[in-house]
UniProtKB/TrEMBL annotation:
Domain of life: Bacteria
PROSITE patterns linked to this entry: HTH_TETR_2
Protein name: TetR family transcriptional regulatory protein
UniProt entry tagged with the keyword Transcription regulation: yes
Length: 211
């Protein structure tokens, strides 16, 4: 008996993932201004009927790709800060985790999809990106607020500092994706940490050279 994908969750999910993988491979390839839907269908090995079973439009596909990628980043940021010993260490972990995207080949390749002019024209993409950025910044702002409480970041201004740190990290990621940043990952992390997360006076006194 023939089973439709709608009745076979595993098959439906394979189809869906194949479409998303093909879109990541093809969007923006060779500098094209637009990627025909037919190219994505061929790349995924599906037909139009299958595509529309999963996504109402190509724009909806792109928005889904962005939302799922952002959720993965969000979860990794939360896990990183949860494992840290104190708030300052958690803020450092947040910076390390987000910056690591630029030095991970697969994550960086997928991220470049969302920097293409074609994706920039998708209706709703800008608002969705602002929501994503706000969620990621919110994780950092909570950590910075905790740092004021536990004394590891006594001078923190959570909302403003989170905005500034996030902006710098995202800019570094954009530069890296465009081939404009050839510095080692550890050096870039150190650069951001030194500028935004000075140790508390007590910690500085413990690590400083006696007078």
């Amino acid at each position: 008996m023939l089973r439709l994908a709608a009745d076979d969750p595993d098959r439906a999910e394979r189809e869906r993932r194949a479409i998303i993988r093909a879109a990541h491979r093809l969007i923006g390839r060779e500098g094209r201004a637009a990627t025909p839907l037919e190219d994505i269908l061929r790349g995924a090995g599906v037909n139009r009927r299958t595509f529309y079973r999963h996504f109402p439009s190509k724009d909806a596909l792109v928005l889904t790709m962005q939302r799922e990628a952002a959720a993965g980043v969000r979860d990794s940021l939360r896990a990183a800060v949860r494992e840290a010993g104190d708030a300052r260490a958690a803020a450092v972990a947040w910076i390390e985790e987000l910056l690591a995207i630029g030095w991970d080949e697969r994550a960086s390749r997928d991220g470049r999809t969302f920097m293409t002019p074609e994706v920039g024209l998708v209706v709703g993409i800008a608002d969705a990106l602002e929501d994503i950025y706000a969620e990621h910044r919110g994780i950092l702002a909570e950590v910075l607020a905790a740092g004021r409480t536990d004394g590891s970041l006594p001078a923190a201004q959570p909302e403003w500092d989170a905005l500034a740190i996030h902006a710098v990290v995202v800019r570094y990621l954009e530069m890296r994706a465009r081939g404009r940043l050839d510095r080692p990952y550890a050096a870039v992390v150190d650069d951001v940490v030194r500028r935004f997360l000075p140790p508390s006076p007590e910690a500085a006194g413990l690590t400083g050279t006696p007078g």
